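Thread: Newbie trying to understand structure tokens

Hi all, I'm a second-year student working on a class project, and my supervisor (Dr. K.) asked me to get a predicted structure for one chain before our next meeting. I've only ever worked with sequences, so writing a 3D structure as a token string is new to me. If someone could post the tokens and maybe explain what I'm looking at, I'd be very grateful. Here's the chain:
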Amino acid sequence: MSLGTLDRNPPPLFRQGLSAASKLAVYAALAIFLMVADARFKLTQPLRMVLATALHPMQRALLAPVDAWEAGGDYLRGMERATEAENQARRQLVLQAEKLSRASQLQAENDRLRALLKIQAAQSVPSMAAEVLYEAADPYSRRVVIDHGSRHGVRAGAPVINDAGVLGQVTRVYLLSSEVTLLGDKDAAIPVLNNRTQQRGVAFGGERSEGPMELRFMAANADIKEGDLLSTSGLDGVYPPGLPVATVATVERRGDTSFARVSLKPTSSPDAARHVLVLEPLALHEAARSEAAAANSAEAASAAQRKAEIKSDAKAKAAEARAAAASKPAQGGER
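---
Reply by user tm_fold:
Sure, no problem. This is what the structure looks like when written as tokens:
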């Protein structure tokens, strides 16, 4: 038999194998057997423990990037929360600092108001409290505007003071506000008295380049020194006496002139003035006092006159009573 006649193809059994349905049935039976055996007899429990122990390092290695990602996210979220907490703390510190600044301002304002009340209590001149609104927009003058006017009883020429001393004088009065010309204005003038030597003089507003105020017409040999305190003399009939006005800043004596050049520094700073007292002009106050004294005198005179009339009436009635009593015995004797 020749080799070409041999059939080299495998038998049909080995060529085709198990059918798909047979494989499905075998694998399904095996799965059911394993599930029943594991559920009822725990046959695969040791194998599961061995596999879990063997796969644990691999699981940890595979979970390391996830853990690192989550740890990084937690760190970033923690940093964000810490930054937000820091910002919140900073905002609270700013608010606390603002409240502290307001408390300090209120304390300083209360101190100034207490000082104003002390001045008001010390002065016998009627006064009213006012607040400085703003500085007048005039580059050639020094004026401020207060929140009281003719409706509140403010009069032109009224002195304006604060806790440090004289601030200025009311020059214009409106219905609800008034303009106050400061002592540093070039047209301002106020009679002063040197508290150390009791020497009188007149202080004028000076040029801003030369100083806010100056004491003019002082003799070159006058007894005046730096640091002397000048107060109101009360001779002008406007300012009450004894109010602080300014201190002597510099004294310049030159041989070519018979007057000394005296620069003054006001005791009251207009830039720091917020609450002021508006006083009634001294002349008006004295006139009111004179009228009140005259009225009191007239009332006293009328009261004395009424008293004298009452006494005279009482004397007349007493005399009539005595005459009547004396006439009764005489009539009885005639009978």
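A couple of things are worth pointing out once you decode it. The radius of gyration is 54 Å. The chain has a mean pLDDT of 80. Feel free to ask follow-ups in this thread.
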